[in-house]
């Protein structure tokens, strides 16, 4: 399985609302519940109406379009990283999964995955 490295730096945020989010940016992930409006975006595009934020995240994604019948892909990756004391923040889209780690753990995470048969591109 191929893992695609991403060069951008990301922030995980809570925002008052999505009025200042630029949905034309390359990467914008949102989650809305009764309790919060969450946003993951490129750090340089964090909106001003952010109420909480955590900077310093790097990301990689599973290459290709994943069929919904595939089971355990994210679980295997998260288990490998957890065994190496690397925390993750995962975001799933219709096509694939994105895994974020803190920047200081990013290269170690990729090395762990490469050492377990993943091809890093």
Report the C-alpha radius of gyration, rounded.
15 Å
Give the biggest sheet. Answer: 7 strands, mixed
CATH topology: VC0802-like
Top-tier CATH class? Alpha Beta
Instruction: Give me the secondary-structure category.
Output: alpha+beta
Contiguous runs where pLDDT drops below 50 for at least 5 residues: none
Q: State the share of residues found in helices, binned by percent.
A: 10-25%
Tally of extended strands?
7
Identify the overall geometry: elongated
* Helix-strand string: EEEEHEEHE
| CATH fourth-tier homologous superfamily | VC0802-like
Overall pLDDT score: 93
Strand content: 35-45%
Helix count, DSSP H or I runs of 4 or more residues = 2
Q: How would you summarize what this structure contains?
A:
The protein is α+β, with helices and mostly antiparallel strands.
List the helices and strands and how they pair.
Elements lengths: L1 E14 L12 E5 L4 E6 L7 E13 L10 H11 L5 E4 L4 E6 L3 H10 L3 E2 L1
Task: Kindly describe this structure.
The protein has a single domain, classed as VC0802-like (2-Layer Sandwich), CATH 3.30.2130. The relative contact order is 0.24. With 121 residues, the chain is of the alpha+beta class. Strands 1, 2, 3, 4, 5, 6 and 7 form a 7-stranded mixed β-sheet that branches. 17% of the residues lie in helices and 41% in strands. The mean pLDDT is 93.
Kindly list the characteristics that best describe this protein.
121 residues; VC0802-like; elongated
């Amino acid at each position: 399985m191929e893992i695609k490295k991403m060069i951008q730096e990301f922030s995980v945020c809570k925002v008052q609302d999505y009025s200042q989010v630029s949905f034309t940016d390359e990467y914008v992930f949102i989650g809305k519940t009764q309790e919060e409006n969450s946003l993951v975006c490129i750090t340089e595009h964090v909106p001003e109406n952010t109420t909480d934020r955590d900077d310093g995240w790097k990301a990689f994604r599973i290459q290709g379009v994943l069929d919904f019948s595939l089971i355990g892909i994210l679980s295997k990756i998260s288990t490998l990283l957890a065994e190496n004391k690397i925390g993750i923040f995962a975001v799933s889209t219709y096509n694939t999964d994105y895994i974020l780690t803190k920047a200081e753990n990013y290269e170690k995470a990729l090395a762990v995955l490469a050492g377990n048969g993943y091809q890093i591109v």
